[in-house]
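Throughout this chapter, every protein is written as a compact record of paired, labelled lines. The reader may check this reading against the record printed directly beneath this paragraph:
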Amino acid sequence: MYFGRFSLALFLFLASAAASTAQNKYDAFWGQYMASSLIAQTCKGVTTYSGHDAVSIGVARDSLREQRLLRILYYGNRKNLTRLGHITLTMNGVSTDDPQKLCRYARKIARTDDDIGRFLRAD
């Protein structure tokens, strides 16, 4: 009986950890894309891909599920998605509060293999 309870507890823990890890992948993806969107709104000469193009990148590069990405794109909480973008920028040492630094950073990473730069184009 003890082994059964232990197995059940272990299974529930691992299932919870796997779900948490999967959600973290989607949060990271949307944080990166929203960071690129915040950059494009702030910096002249820097653009970002459309939401649909971003979904294609997420499916191809990050092996994320297209339907889940589209659901978040269309029905996700915009305030939360924007918050993820700000967090991602902060983690990279930049902020929308300092547009000059942000735009220098954007031009440096645009069209690179950087997590945010993969969504950016510098004109």
The helical segments are 2-42, 51-62, 66-75, 78-91, 99-109.
